[in-house]
Write a sequence for this structure.
């Protein structure tokens, strides 16, 4: 092949790659829906090291709103935790030291961090983060039915609810850590 054809092919492949990366979040939200099948306990951030870690990172927020708080809580969770498919602690106060978590731990850690930030910035009367036990649907098909492992029977995510308007914002801290997808679609 001549150099001109190879250059064009590389340009096309690079353009497709850029396109896929740029649209990963809206495509993911369009294809995958999360459905809550239960709730998990909410833990308060009480570990002094965890609280200090959150406070040090919260200096980034100048004029706090819910989007900034969610973004920061996702960043903190992603920075502190590493995914494991093994059984791990789910209490964020203990996860701060162990650093290894499955999707339950990720959701718990994010929830505690988010709720701490909401309280710090006087938004806890308006918003609350809640960890959810969920299942993922590819359009209308429950993907968990295709796995035999108990590890894949469900997948935890988090809803952030506006107490006045009932607006729900969904996040999956585990997916955010790997794919940098901030928001998810929640099935009604």
């Amino acid at each position: 092949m001549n150099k001109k054809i190879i250059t064009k092919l590389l340009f096309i492949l690079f353009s497709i790659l850029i396109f896929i990366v740029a649209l990963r979040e809206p495509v993911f939200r369009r294809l995958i829906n999360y459905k809550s099948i239960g709730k998990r306990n909410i833990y308060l951030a009480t570990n002094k090291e965890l609280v200090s870690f959150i406070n040090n990172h919260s200096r980034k927020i100048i004029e706090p709103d819910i989007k900034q708080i969610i973004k920061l809580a996702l960043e903190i969770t992603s920075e502190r935790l590493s995914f494991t498919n093994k059984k791990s602690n789910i209490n964020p106060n203990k996860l701060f030291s162990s650093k290894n978590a499955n999707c339950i731990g990720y959701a718990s850690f994010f929830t505690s961090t988010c709720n701490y930030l909401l309280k710090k910035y006087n938004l806890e009367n308006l918003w609350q983060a809640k960890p959810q036990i969920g299942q993922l649907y590819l359009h209308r098909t429950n993907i968990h039915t295709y796995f035999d492992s108990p590890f894949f029977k469900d997948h935890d995510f988090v809803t952030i609810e506006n107490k006045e308007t009932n607006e729900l914002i969904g996040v999956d801290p585990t997916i955010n850590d790997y794919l940098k997808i901030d928001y998810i679609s929640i099935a009604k």
The radius of gyration is 19 Å. The chain has one domain: 33-186.
